Amino acid sequence: MPVNDRNIEGAQIAFAGLAAHHWRAVLTGFPGSDNHWFLSCELCPWEGPKFWSHLRGRNGEPPSARRHKGGCIGEDKVRRLIPAYH
């Protein structure tokens, strides 16, 4: 992505969201909302591509507690650990 004020602000918001939702970027910086981002789940060993736009929740709804295929640590535990999933 080109370096400009809008993209810098979007990247700062995305990285703060990753921290709040217990995700970590593995190989790259912020690719934009509608591009796959290779992430690591900080709650289990899963790694893979995700869209930032899918991780933050949509239309005022919380993000899905089913974080990724393979089950993670279970939806109830996810909701207890991360306030955004309530």
SSE layout:
Blueprint: H1 5-20, E1 23-25, E2 36-41, E3 47-51, H2 52-55, H3 75-81
> Strand-residue fraction?
15-25%
Strand line-up in the sheet with most strands = 1-2-3
| Mean pLDDT level | 87
Shape: globular
Total number of beta strands: 3
| Structural class category | alpha+beta
For the record, give the distance between the C-alpha atoms at the N and C termini, rounded to a whole number.
32 Å
Largest sheet: 3 strands, antiparallel
Outline the structure in words:
With 86 residues, the chain is of the alpha+beta class. 31% of the residues lie in helices and 16% in strands. The chain is built from 3 helices and 3 strands; from the N terminus they run αβββαα. Strands 1-2-3 form a 3-stranded antiparallel beta sheet. The longest helix has 16 residues. It starts with a helix and ends in a 5-residue tail after the last helix.
Which short descriptors sum up this protein?
86 residues, alpha+beta, 16% strand
Entry summary:
This protein is an alpha+beta fold and 86 residues long.
